[in-house]
Write a structure and sequence with these properties.
five-stranded mixed β-sheet; three-stranded antiparallel β-sheet; 1 helix; 8 strands; about 5% helix; globular; Metallo-depent_PP-like; Calcineurin-like phosphoesterase domain-containing protein
Amino acid sequence: MPLFEDYGVDLVLAGHLHTYRRRGHIRNFRRAASGPYYFVCGVAGNLPHDIATAHKLDIVRGTRPEFGNYLFLEADSGRLSVKCFLPDGREFDRAELVKKGGAA
């Protein structure tokens, strides 16, 4: 995570937890007003995990029981929209990142 901060990364899409979590801006391993914006995307393959415990950085967690999901990203000059959808096409979550003074 410190490398993402050092290099000015705007968005991090990660896996591994086999679940969905939107964590928002994190800097120095804490919630922040700026810094990389984190999404943990899942479910990978046919191995869903029922991670019921909320993490202190979670803004949004996946449904229980966990279902598959996918992200749709849309960008234009200075804005990046991230939407999460369930397999049946229902929108589950969304966030918008705005970059001041340049392209997103």
